[in-house]
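Backbone geometry:

***
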Amino acid sequence: MDPTTALAASAIAKLAFDEFIKSGAGELAKKSLQGAGTLIKSLRDKIQAKFRGNPRAEAALAEIETQGTPAALDKISKYLDLEMTQDESFAADIRQVAQQIINIHNQSVSSRTYTNYGRDQINIETIQGNPTIGGS
């Protein structure tokens, strides 16, 4: 199965509207997706355009933007799932954008370097003598 077809409506909705959820992951999540900002906006715009003319879906969009609750995100997910089922072209388009956002996020996470500045740092490939770790 193509990974872009595996993205569920709920995952896509979370990518597009997560910034409206007040109980989200906070600054760390914002920083990790910083490079994907224009793609997130593009994804959100595509979803909003698709929902145009559907009063209930538009009400759910307004609710997520004003209240920012997980329940509002769930409503968006349900309407998005319905639209994706009915319009394969739309589904493929937003899955592709969502996959690009995920790729940017994964790239930023994997490019972080972690340095151990602790006193017990040793290189196990070049151990010399009798190293003692964690004490005397």
In short: Residues 12 and 98 are 6 Å apart (CA to CA). The mean pLDDT is 76.
